[in-house]
Automatic annotation (TrEMBL):
Belongs to the SUA5 family. PANTHER family: SUA5, THREONYLCARBAMOYL-AMP SYNTHASE. PROSITE patterns: YRDC. One of its GO terms (molecular function) is double-stranded RNA binding. Keywords: ATP-binding, Cytoplasm, Nucleotide-binding, Nucleotidyltransferase, Transferase, tRNA processing. One of its GO terms (biological process) is tRNA processing. GO terms for cellular component: cytoplasm. Residues 24-208 form the YrdC-like domain. It holds the Pfam family Sua5_yciO_yrdC. This is L-threonylcarbamoyladenylate synthase. It is found in: Cytoplasm. Its EC number is 2.7.7.87.
């Protein structure tokens, strides 16, 4: 009887979240989860990220809550370059810059149109931070066929998760699905540039894609 009691007490509780290995099938499962308003943790070219439907207010609120982010904090938007003019005011110069950096590891600030369906994600900001890269995020985006909201997989003031284990430690059952692609290839989130300004300004630096490198690419195309 004592052995039975000890065995029962040592049984680990079942987790509610799902954990899958990266791959096309996992991305299709993640796409369906996001359509249902769920929260997913995914790998990128560097750190792990938290993803949800960019138009789902409940999912956006959950994403902010699990990261301990304020309700007025803008969330980066995953969309391909063909969608940007629908939600942002883009001039010819900015369009050329978008062509250069979509897809790439670079996130761009563009001028948000008034009263767009992305207002819940972008909050009080007059900009949309657009992110699109050749990584598992692109695979997920194409499976979803919808615009996504994305943020680094960490809670406030802590480092972005470099492994799925770190992500699970941060969020546990507050995330519905984790997709594991092994240790990340870096420890920086994407660099941010503001393409509304002339010259383009750095809003967030990243060692794996420096602002000097970005400026050199812009200069090569006469887009400083």
């Amino acid at each position: 009887m004592n052995h039975a009691r000890i065995e029962k007490e040592s049984t680990q509780p079942e987790h509610k979240y799902q954990l899958l290995k990266a791959g096309q099938q996992a991305y299709e499962v993640a796409a369906q989860a996001i359509r249902e308003g769920k929260i997913v943790v995914m790998p990128t070219l560097t750190v792990y990220v938290v993803v949800c439907d960019a138009f789902n207010c409940n999912a956006l609120n959950r994403l902010r809550a699990i990261r301990h982010s304020p309700s007025n904090k803008p969330i980066t938007i995953v969309m391909d370059k063909t969608k940007i003019p629908k939600y942002a005011v883009i001039d010819e110069r900015q369009q050329r810059i978008i062509e250069l950096f979509s897809p790439s590891p670079v996130s761009m600030y563009v001028q948000k149109k008034e009263q767009t369906p992305l207002d819940s994600a972008t909050a009080d900001s007059d900009a949309i931070v657009v992110y699109f890269q050749d990584s598992p995020i692109r695979d997920l985006y194409e499976c979803c066929n919808m615009i996504l909201a994305i943020s680094s997989s960490n809670t406030k003031a802590l480092p972005a998760a470099a492994t799925i284990e770190e992500s699970i430690k941060y969020f546990g059952d507050d995330v519905d699905l984790y997709i594991d692609n092994g240790p990340s290839q870096g420890n920086d989130a994407s660099p941010h540039i503001d393409i509304r300004t002339k010259p383009v300004e750095s809003r967030r630096a990243a060692a794996h894609f420096s602002f000097d490198k970005i400026k050199a690419i812009l200069a090569e195309h006469n887009l400083e």
